[in-house]
Structures are given as C-alpha cells and as structure tokens.
C-alpha cells in the first residue's frame, strides 16, 4: 500500500480499520457463537461451584462422623431454624437416636 501511495506523492504512516459492517446473517451467527461461548463458560463455573459444594458437604459429614459434639451442634442449629418457622416443636430423644441405624456415633 505504501508503494501505491508513494506513486501519488503521499507518505503513509499508518493504516487502520475503524468499522466493519457485516451482513445480517453474519451478525446473527456471530451473536449465536458468543452466546454459546458464554453459556459454556457459565456451565463450567456452575459445575465448579457444585463440585466445591459437594466437597464441603463431604468434609462436614466426615467431621460430624468423627465428632459427636459437632453433630449435636448441627442438630441444635437445624432445630433453631425450624423453630423460627413454626409455633411448637417437640423433640424426643435426639438425632443420635433417630439415626442410630444409619450413623455410628462413638463417644470419645
């Protein structure tokens, strides 16, 4: 391009593109591609968050399995949240009695 312009006595320092006008179909296709990329990124983020939440639940379950006091505190926290929403609650025994067949709580 510089050689062509030099033939007319014009020195070219820089050339740039300011705007590109695409046909309507091309704009639609590019918009769909961008939307698909954003959806894929959102899906990856959502899966990472789900994995993190699952790991956190597993860690909590392991702590409670090895620590009956932590399990009791979680039980009381849950009962407190339930009690905020209802007028009357009766607790007979406790979580350790309700889940005796499912979770082996060992006092240390």
Would you mind describing this structure in some detail?
- Its main location: membrane.
- Belongs to the band 7/mec-2 family.
- It is found in: Membrane.
- This is Band 7 domain-containing protein.
- With 108 residues, the protein is an all-alpha fold.
- It is 63% helix and 0% strand.
- The chain folds into 2 domains: 23-66; 67-101, no CATH class.
- The protein has 4 helices and no strands.
- Helix 2 (24-66) crosses helix 3 (68-83).
- The mean pLDDT is 83.
Write the layout of secondary structure elements.
Elements: H1 2-6, H2 24-66, H3 68-83, H4 95-98
The backbone outline, from C-alpha atoms, is rod-shaped
**Gap between N and C termini:** 84 Å
- The average pLDDT value, as a whole number, equals 83
Q: Report the C-alpha radius of gyration, rounded.
A: 33 Å
Question: Assembly type of the shown chains?
Answer: single chain
Residue fraction in strands:
under 5%
Major sheet characteristics: none
Helix fraction by DSSP (H/I, runs of at least 4): 55-70%
- The overall strand count is 0
Order of helices and strands: HHHH
Task: Kindly name the structural category.
Answer: mainly alpha
pLDDT under 50 segments (min length 5)? Answer: none
Domain count, please report it: 2
Number of helices: 4
Subcellular location: Membrane
Protein name: Band 7 domain-containing protein
Family: Belongs to the band 7/mec-2 family.
Organism: Snodgrassella alvi
């Amino acid at each position: 391009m510089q050689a062509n312009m030099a033939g007319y006595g014009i020195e070219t320092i820089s050339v740039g593109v300011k705007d590109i006008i695409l046909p309507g179909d091309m704009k639609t296709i590019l918009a769909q591609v961008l939307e698909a990329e954003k959806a894929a990124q959102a899906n990856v983020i959502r899966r990472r968050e789900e994995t993190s939440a699952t790991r956190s639940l597993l860690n909590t379950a392991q702590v409670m399995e090895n620590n009956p006091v932590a399990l009791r505190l979680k039980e009381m926290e849950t009962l407190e949240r339930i009690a905020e929403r209802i007028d009357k609650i009766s607790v007979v025994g406790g979580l350790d009695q309700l889940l005796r067949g499912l979770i082996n709580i060992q006092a240390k």
